[in-house]
Amino acid sequence: MLIINQPFNELVRLGLVFLCATKLTKMKKTNILLLLMLVFVLATFSQLTPLKNTNQLNNSSTSESCGFDHMHDMLLSSNADYRQRTEDFNNFMKSYNVPKSGATYVVPVVVHVMHKGEAVGTGSNISEVDINQGILQLNERFRKIPGSLGDGNGVDVDIEFALAVRDPNGNCTNGIVRVDMTGNSTYMNFGVRAQTSNGITDAALKATSRWNTLEYYNIYLVSEIDDNECGFGIQGYAYFASAHGQSYDGMVQLGCKFAQSGNTTLTHELGHAMNLYHTFEGDNNGNSCPSNTSCSSQGDRCCDTPPHIRSASNCVTGTNSCDGGSSKELFIHNYMDYSSDACQSEFTADQKARANAAISVTRASYLAANGNMSLVPPSTAGVDFSVSSSVVCLGSPVTFYDESTCIPNTYQNGGWPNISFLWTFDDGVNTPITSTDQNPTINFAQAGSYDVTLQITNGSGTTSLTKPSFVSVANGVQSSTCQNTSSNTGNFGYAISKVVFNTMSATSSSGTNGGWQDLTCSKNTQVTQGQNYNLEVTVNAGNSGLGLQFRVYIDYNDDGAYTAGELVLSNSITDNTSQTFTTSVNIPLTSTTGQLLRLRAISDGGTLASGCESPLLVGDVEDYGVYINPSGVPPVADFSGSPTTLCEGNTVSFTDLSTNTPTSWSWTFAGGTPSSSTAQNPTITYNTAGTYQVQLTATNAFGNDVETKVGYITVNGVPSNAGAITGSVSECNNATGVSYSIAAVNGATNYTWTVPTGATIASGQGTTAITVNYGTNSGNVTVTPSNSCGNGGLSSTSVTIAPCGSAPVADFSGSPTTLCEGNTVSFTDLSTNTPTSWSWTFAGGTPSSSTAQNPTITYNTAGTYQVQLTATNAFGNDVETKVGYITVNGVPSNAGAITGSVSECNNATGVSYSIAAVNGATNYTWTVPTGATIASGQGTTAITVNYGTNSGNVTVTPSNSCGNGGLSSTSVTIAPCGSAPVADFSGSPTTLCEGNTVSFTDLSTNTPTSWSWTFAGGTPSSSTAQNPTITYNTAGTYQVQLTATNAFGNDVETKVGYITVNTCGVTKLINSDCGKTMTTYLDYVTCDYVAGATEYQYEISNVGLSYNQTIIRNYKWRFIYLHEIPGIQNNTTYNIRVRAKVGGVYSSYGTVCQLTTPVSSVTTHLSQNDCGINMSNYGNYITCEYVSSATEYEYEFVNTGLSYTQTYLRTNPNYRFVYVNNVPGIQLNTTYDVRVRAKINGVYTPYGNVCQITTPSTPITTQLRSSDCGITMSSYSNYITCDYISNATEYEYEFVNTGLSYTQTYLRTNPNYRFVYVNNVPGIQLSTTYDVRVRAKVNGVFTQYGTICQITTPPSARYGVVENEEVVIYSDEIINNIHLTIYPNPSQGEFVYMELKSSEDISELIVTDITGKVVHQQNLQADDYYSTVRFNEKLNSGFYFVTVISGSQKQTKKLVVK
Questions:
Q1: How far apart, in Å, are the Cα atoms of 1098 and each of 613, 698, 1082, 1130?
Q2: Rounded Cα–Cα distance for residues 772 and 331 (Å)
Q3: What three-state secondary structure class fits 19?
Q4: Using CA atoms, how far apart are residues 1228 and 370, in angstroms rounded to an integer?
């Protein structure tokens, strides 16, 4: 098909003019089409442009419809954090598997309607109904709901979206924010910009309205993108989950397309939000095939979508030129392609994996399981509901939708915690129908009119709503109607795109015509004879020169024909236009009632003769349903209440103001007594302050109407009590403008103040703040809050009024301020403002007080003393206090003991003596024996002495300016020399708990003969034993001193702070385990950590059973599994207490906790990842859940169809996994039931749950390792090796070079040494390429050869340097195998997501900072752990080390916190 260029368009127009002039329009339309086609063929001699979509008669825009690539690429280049998160996620996905739990993730959504000032439901301010419809369609596509728009060939993604019900302030919300953008001229003219300079920026848009991006996914519905007037061009854009938590996160979409049933923009963009690329990622803007060497790291990184060039906006089939000719069916139906909306219907399994990882890892903060409250109702439901059709054909399903406020809804009936629903459908004749689904689909078996009631219960209470005659079930619809056909169906640009009649609204493609569509039972409305109803029809015409005419009929007489009297609207439009037509339709009194009639909307290119014209050229025919009620008017409900504002305990009289003569009334009064009534004009009492809703349902024989007035009644209580009065409590006589105030009192409308006699309130009476002019009287200032309902409690403050002058400002001096004991100080008053009296106090002085103005005081005792003066006059007093003002020095204290040798050799030199500094001394005078001299230090606290041969005394006298202190003396013996002791000792332990003992050991040398110990803090505090034992009862740090003596002298050893005594911690079960009822013996309990503890002892007791048992745990593994405890019974409550051993001593037991054991015994079963596995090769293994203290695991394999039962025993509990090829008699591609049991204390547990596994379809093989396949060897020091096969006993290598006619096998008979040095292979040549394949011998039989790999031998026979000749041993068990993944990294310091695979079931996680300080520590209870790790406290920015210790294995990774 071709597109006509502008010059040839004129030729076509001339041809059409000619046709009209010759009245060819009277010919059949098919002949006209033939003539037009002939003109087109003649045009091949003119300039022609290929038409991209051969199914279209006119050329739709082919511009980019998704802005993701542009916005995503900008962030990758400009935002390092976004780029790093994206790279981290893509690397993470290389090892990620979708969990098999089948969990459904629900994303809380807030929709921001960025409108241009229109009324709700018009223009860009789309209605809540349309928003709910968009969410419904979105979930149908993500969940692949059968029979819906999402029912394609793909997979259920297990992700749903729901409008938030709790706003950031904790209040109920409908999840919709409406923002009036009329104040922003740029937005009003151009909308938001994505790829052009027209419009406000994405950042400016989101700054206008944004909810917390960690708790809500923000969707912005805009009027235009890049000034496209909600037409062609960019339809929307979003960012990867790498934007999670950032201000720019969120999706932007044209609001006009949000609820269109055929539009997939919302699904497509939210795919991007869940980290899905376009399926054609890397196609160079459609110019070349994407790279395809690694599907997990190139293209869209989904291996089940082939590389391809982006599709045109169509659904063209054929082959894919990018991968050798696969079918385009493999990608044209994918939501992430650019095929047409009508073609898209699926996501793939690999796309699901990426999306599930994005929501469960990167966007995990959205999930309720992680504490998100966005979908948890904060109050009772405001019940409301709608129906897919208020009229339904008998036997046709109809769906009812919960539209209640404060209740989340994904429209998928998945259920919500603590929320229940009860629907009742009652026709008044038959047994009512009920349902507990949130959005039930009902197939009514009886015709009639049904009352519908919805009751909702959540954590705040139960509410309900009944809508009488809400749905009518008709017997059927006229089936003998004419059914038009169209000669050409497809996207020709000629179509009816929208029909709205009364409550029925139907939107379809603006360019696709589809012949006749019967929508009577799915799209319909109810009307009444004699009433007027609005009809709105939107039509579109292409550019093929035909124009478009349309007609709308209602088959009032239900005869299947469409006559002139049933024509309600007709008109025509010219080419390349779209127009909406409206009219008011009056329903004839003669029309058929109680039956579903047809409303026919028919259009065609060119002319249109009747409602049954057929065949049409490019016709679009749509039949809708109209159910006509007999003449008569249902009520229009309305009411008034008086008064609407009242005090608690008063009543409101309600008056029915409904029109059209209702015959019954149903009132509900929130907060009222009674809370409901059927009286026409009830009187209701309101006892509790608040704002309340009133609802009236008015009913007559022709229907009903509901009027709800939200916040209609306001009930006030008396105010709260007044708070404290703020203001001056002491003023001068006749003071003016003195301010007083209180905080506003809840509920108060007036404030009544009183002041002391003679004072006046200058301003503010009646408000929360006043100013007062005082007289000379003291008294109280009071305030009483009030409103029309009464007074609150009074508040009062006492105010003193007195004459005013200037009180003194006290000050003084003294001389001297430093003196010796017994001397005097003269004090001088320096106070201002003329004091008339003085009151002195002199600490340490004689006298100690005085009333003289300038006293003289004697100080007899050394010290530092305070002086205080109170100066007083008629206007007050003042106090001046000078702390430490007087310093009194005495003679020094007596000198303390002299430290130094008391026995020296004749003529000894450099002998040191010292004393402790003496309080008050400024000089020290030393004397030494005759013949000795002081070498240095005279006048200080330490000297060195050179001796002669005379014994005598060493003395020292301290002194200062006030005199001498007492002398200290030590006798020194000078004699020929021996060896005095060198004192030393040790104690064990040196760190202990209160009440424990330390054993001291003398380590002195030179054979002391006596010992003198002093023990600060010890009992006893001294000892003369050589090796004493001392008890320490009080926590602290203590000194120990030993003096060792023999005939030649003595020596002193003092160790300061040598003994540390701790108050040892008391521990108990952690709070989450205290009082726990355990569901399985795989659970464990643990106690609080105690610093320094080396053991923990658990005591388990039950008095009624006379049972008491203790269990000791190493400090690294302080938790216990209950089944490890001897004699423990099922379903029994035990008292548990714990104590810790610190410093070798147990603390006291902590608080007693109760624990109830599980109802049934411990069992094990296959791990979650292995239950249901389809094994891809025999390299896979299966493993069971860990059972503490188990010594063996027995696996049972059963296939009843094959009469096969086999057990397989694992006698080493550390290697509980099984390679199924080792199980005797196992067959390929066969499904087996597998169950497991464990042996504990010599007894097997019962078998656990049965799981199915399916063995591989191909036998086990081996081949060269990937690192050796294709190797070019540099020397004969290189060797090659093959992949390990469990239970293999031999490996045989085959080397082949067909060009040399060379074939050689090489056998490795030791499975632990399966590598080969190729120079050992007979006949091997240098620099030659060989084909190598390998097979293994298992159970005495060789497997098939594996895949062929090529190797090239070295160019010379030279050997390389062998740095380590140790041979690698390949074990048949997994050891030293810890796989640790941390994401995101960098982190924000609150949590990380961690995946751990280990051969152990219990691992310890330790997080340290760069100083080695432990900032987080916990145990991980799984060998396959995948969850969120939340830190005890948010980590500061910096580097951390995350270490996992699993048995004897350890792995550490660096974590960056920004």
A1: 90, 70, 18, 19
A2: 84
A3: helix
A4: 42
Average pLDDT on 972-981 reads 83
Closest to 105 in 3D by CA, of 377, 353, 381: 353
Distances (CA, A) of 916 to 353, 695, 983, 1016: 78, 93, 21, 19
Question: Which candidate, 199, 291, 209, places its Cα nearest to that of 250?
Answer: 209
1329 contacts: CB under 8 Å, gap ≥ 6: 1297, 1350, 1351, 1352, 1353
For range 188-201, the mean pLDDT: 92
- Nearest-angstrom CA–CA distance, 697 and 1189: 68
Contacts for 1255 with CB less than 8 Å, ≥ 6 apart: 1175, 1220, 1226, 1227, 1228, 1229, 1230, 1231, 1232
Distance of CA 744 to the CA centre of its chain: 39
Predicted confidence (pLDDT) per residue in 638-695, tens digit:
999 999 999 999 999 999 999 888 999 999 999 999 999 999 999 999 999 888 999 9
CA 870 to CA 877: how far, in whole Å?
Answer: 7
Structure tokens at 1455: 């974590």
Distances (CA, A) of 525 to 533, 558, 598: 11, 16, 11
3-state secondary structure of 401: strand
Question: What's the rounded mean pLDDT across residues 501-526?
Answer: 84
Distance (Å, whole) CA 607 – CA 70 = 45
Distance of CA 1022 to the CA centre of its chain: 63
End-to-end CA distance of the chain: 58
1303-1311 — which CB contacts under 8 Å span 24+ positions?
1311/1370, 1311/1372
Candidates 144, 147, 139; CA nearest to 155 is: 144
Q: Are 1020 and 1045 in contact (CB under 8 A)?
A: no
More confident residue, 1393 or 529: 529
Instruction: Tell the residue number behind the tokens 């070295």, with chain if given.
Output: 1354
Strands (E), 123-212: 159-163, 176-180
SS (H, E, C) 807-831: CCECCEEEECCEEECCEEEEEEECC
CA distance linking residue 1311 with residue 1283, whole number of Å: 11
Cβ contact 106:382 at 8 Å: no
Q: How confident is the model at residue 1423 (pLDDT cuts 50, 70, 90)?
A: very low
DSSP 862-920: -EEEEEEEEEEETTEEEEEEEEEEEEEE-SPPPP-PPEE-SEEETT--SEEEE-PPPTT
Helix (H, G, I), strand (E, B) or coil at 415: coil
pTM score of the predicted model: 0.46
Listed in sequence order, the DSSP H helices in 476-529 are none
- Evaluate the CA torsion angle 1219, 93, 251, 204 in order and state its sign: positive
Parallel, antiparallel, or unpaired: how do β-strands 105-115 and 159-163 relate? parallel
Q: Is 11 exposed, middle or buried (CB count within 10 Å of its CB: 0-12, 13-18, 19+)? A: middle
Residue with tokens 């104590």: 1139
Residues 853-894 have pLDDT tens digits of: 999 999 999 899 999 999 999 788 999 999 999 999 888 989
Please report which residue ranges of 339-493 form alpha helices under DSSP H.
Answer: 349-357
Angle among Cα 1143, 1149, 1151 to the nearest 5 degrees reads 135
What is the token pair recorded at 245? 């938590």
Calpha distance 348→333 (Å, rounded): 10
Question: CB of 1121 within 8 A of CB of 1166?
Answer: no
Q: Please give the radius of gyration of the chain, using alpha carbons only, rounded to the nearest integer.
A: 47
Q: What are phi and psi of 300, to 5 degrees?
A: -85, 5
Contact of 1223 with 1264, CB cutoff 8 Å = no
